[in-house]
Amino acid sequence: MRQLLEFAAAPAILLILAVPAAADTAALERHVDRLAAEELEGRLTGTGGERAAAEYLAAELEQLGAKPLPGQSGYLIPFEFTAGTSDDGSTLALAWDSGGHEWTGVESIQALSFSDNGSVSGGVVFAGYGLVVPESQDFGYDSYATLDVEDKIVVVLRYFPEDLDQESRSKLARYSGLRYKALQARERGARALVVVSGPRSPNAGEIIPMAFDTAVAGSGIVAASISGAVAERLFEQVPDKTLEQAQAALDDGNPHVTGFEIAGVELTLDVKVERETRTGFNVAGILAGNDAQTADKPYVIVGAHYDHLGRGDSGNSLAKQEEAGGVHHGADDNASGAAAVLAAGVRLAGTEHRRHVVLAFWSGEELGLLGSSAFVNGAKSEPTLDPGRVAGYLNMDMVGRMRDNRLTVQAIGSSSAWPILIERSNVPVGFDLQTIDDPYLPTDSTAFNSAGVPTLNLFTGSHEDYHRPSDTADKINYEDLDRVARFSALIARRLADLEEAPDFVKVAPRTDQGGGRDTLRAFTGTIPDYTTEVEGLRLSGVIEGGPAAEGGLLEGDVITEFAGQKIANIYDYTYALDVVKVGEPVKVVFLRGDERHEIEIVPRARD
Amino acid sequence: MTEPHPRHRIRLAMAALLAIGISGLPSAAVAELSEADFLSRVRRLTFEGRRAGEGYFSPDGKKLVFQSERHQGNPFYQIYLLDLETGETSLVSPGPGKTTCPFIRPGSGDVLFGSTHHDPRSEEYQRAELEARASGQERRYAWDYDPEMEIWVAAADGGGLTRLTDERGYDAEGSYSPDGEWIVFASTREAFQRELSEEEAKILEINPAYFGEIYIMRADGSEQRRLTDAPGYDGGPFFSADGSKIVWRRFDEEGLIADVWTMSSDGSNQRQITDFGSMSWAPYLHPSGEYIFFASNKHGFANFEVFIVDADGRKEPVRVTYTDGFDGLPVPSPDGRRLAWTSTRHGGEGGQLYFADWNHESALAALAAAADRSSAN
Question: By the 8 A CB rule, do A97 and A264 touch?
Fold first, then answer.
């Protein structure tokens, strides 16, 4: 290992004195109370609640002595994003020798959220499930192997063949995402992709809901979903089979069953997607370094997202039926992290540190790391904030629910400098630390990792109020939140005083993860505990009334086998979920304490 | 022998029932104990490097000296001093060679440790070990009782490095008396000081630690003398807090079974404390003098756990740790309220230092409730 950590001359005792141990839980309570207040309406990015939270954080930054970032006139840094998509009157027309039909209305034809806008016409090719497994996977399956779809309109089935054995399901499920299918059609020169949920599949014949998609641009192809009725009219032009027969022939996964051209039919598709662009705000301030040469040194960022789910309309709420539509307070997620950044900022402002320290509050995290990604991308054009000049990024996401002194430190694989830094910073604070190497996390640190910045994420664990209105301020553990803030200040301080910036270690991403969100169609109602690397998957809760709860699973249970697959970690579980069938009981083996149990649960469809 | 009187027989049976009932009560209570009864705020102290261990407190409890594989270019342990208030660590040992078994001198704050840095082949050995690890042929960790190992002492900042022993044979495992004037240590020097029989020469090849015995010397290295004289590896000696006693571990001749022993500081009153018939080692007296910490693989060859036993070994030892992986080398703080030990409970091969608050009252209660050793077997 490189000897990166030669410290500046600052005597150690001064460092500790300068990062006071005295608890300031009153300020933390004030921050969380304010951010999680009812009137901030859950701080959904692009709303007034988000704006009010941003103004509050900006005022606190000013108060503690941080200045706006170079090139910025204030603490609020705007970014644009797509707040939602809707269908603006897409139409589909079929024409054949003896007649034709035209459909309008989202019960028959609706854009896929990532579609380009445009009107296209052409002959029709039915391409089965539209699946292509890359050759590298050593599993021959290509729906287009014998088809020429150049300048055609491709009609495919949603999902993947229904009657596969589990191993084949696991292979194909990964490539059944709608975006991936659209990409395959586009790469083969198709003019459009039309998707139908087959009669033998879950959600049979139903229009695919417009998934939340924050991409500002389309995917380079016109893509829409049609109802079963529309598809059946199309298949009336196929002389020898119905849609159901065509699907049945494909469903055993035989790769030699091919699609076919539907001769004599011209399909005209006019897709109109309305994308609503809104503005969100990151909030950031800088605490200047005390070393005359720090202007030349990579700086340190301590950050947390402050946005949340609003009233939970954007698709990632876990609210129970009776609480749906209520304000999602997001006290732990992530008013706790934002409050800890402020508390760390107060400590750092009162101490000398050689490098600049940026305090950052991201918005749009819940919508897909929008704010941090905008910052990382935008920062490339701003010399002072080039990501190449970030020594390290310390993130806090959900740090307010500490139990049993346990704190999870994630992404320590991203630099060889982290272990000694964490060791030294934790000795005075004394957490029971769980360290996890993986830097690919569902939080803002991932945006920095992509830009080659060493990252760390602090996390006190998931819980049953996660993404529900019940994540409220009264459930925060303020004493330990203050210790987390102190720990983060110690790490930031040590990082800021390093002579040489930490190295960046690129951790290889796991390739065996499930496909995109839209391939995850089985709903089990489990809340995985992301903080443990124990053998198996520990549950930090179960969603009331969900299949897991009905099957008898409880918080603290450790799933070791799911649908016949051994579960060693969260990835195995995601992977196993890919391949279970909605409505069919699956065997779950779990440990409760030392006792092994076996139950069956019945997954439901996720739409 | 005549048939016992029937009543007498009944009385015997009742007595046996009573005995079971009485001894059954405390052992039932013991069975319900868990790690949380003794240890709270358990946390990992070290994260840097492949391995760390053997943490020993300074007399004021504010510092911990330990060994860790974290020195650039040297795959072997070096000695570090950790400030428990600030989290700062600093290198004490000179850098090259193998080092082990540090201890802080009461009064001066100097640090003694075993070291081979004076061996001109040190860097060659380091390179060979690094190459072996790089090629994936890492040998399972084994201490090799290097006959070049000698006891050295240095100031806390590594300055004033002074050699205290100068005998061929492994000299290490040293620790100071509470007044800082004496050092007990282990040495295999006997193997190099006299003519060995053919049998003994063979043993030296395979199991050099067989010749390990406990010695004592003044803090300046003078007045070296031997305290033990038994075949098999005697090592790991530490003084009691009042300086009157020494606790150590003694292996059998095969080196498979070890037990905790105590003796007076002049070598008299040698007494065996444990008899699990497994490897019970790394003993350390609690500063109250009431009980001894040690580690044993009673529950499986590779499953070391920490135990405590009353200082005279009259009762059955009480298990302290219940977590998978290695738990050993337990050392209490001078105030008797904290415990440092070495564990692999985070998973993986390399041990790291762990730290917890120690519940002395629970320990006393559990020891009081423990069954008498004579009645247990």
Answer: yes
| A16 interface with B at CB cutoff 8 Å | yes
Q: Which is more confident, A461 or A341?
A: A341
Q: What is the pLDDT of residue B376?
A: 42
Q: Which two tokens stand for residue B135?
A: 């090629």
A236 and A324: one domain? no
| pLDDT bracket for residue A321 (50, 70, 90) | confident
- Chain B neighbours among A 523-562 (CB < 8 Å)? 533
Contact state of B86 with A490 under an 8 Å Cβ cutoff: no
End residue of a domain, out of A225, A248, A271: A271
For residues A96 and A163, state if they share a domain: yes
Question: What's the ipTM?
Answer: 0.83
Lowest mean per-residue pLDDT among A29-33, A172-176, B144-148: A172-176
pLDDT tens for A338-371 read 999 999 999 999 899 999 999 999 999 998 888 9
pLDDT at A341 (0 to 100):
98
Beta bridge partners, A125, equal A154, A261
Same domain, A389 and A475: yes
Q: Give the nearest partner residue to B43 out of A12, A424, A433, using CB atoms.
A: A433
Say if residue B202 is exposed, middle or buried (CB neighbours under 10 Å; 0-12, 13-18, 19+): exposed
Q: According to the model, what pLDDT value does residue A583 have?
A: 77
Q: Which residues contact B57 (CB under 8 A, 6 or more apart)?
A: B63, B64, B104, B331, B333, B334, B340
Contact B86 A428 (CB under 8 A): yes
Whether B41 and A13 lie within 8 Å, measured CB to CB = no
B318 touches B363 (CB < 8 A)? yes
User: What average pLDDT score do residues A470-491 get?
Assistant: 97
Reported residue count of chain B is 377
CATH superfamily of B31-376: TolB, C-terminal domain (2.120.10.30)
Give, for A244, the enclosing helix (H) or strand (E).
helix A243-250
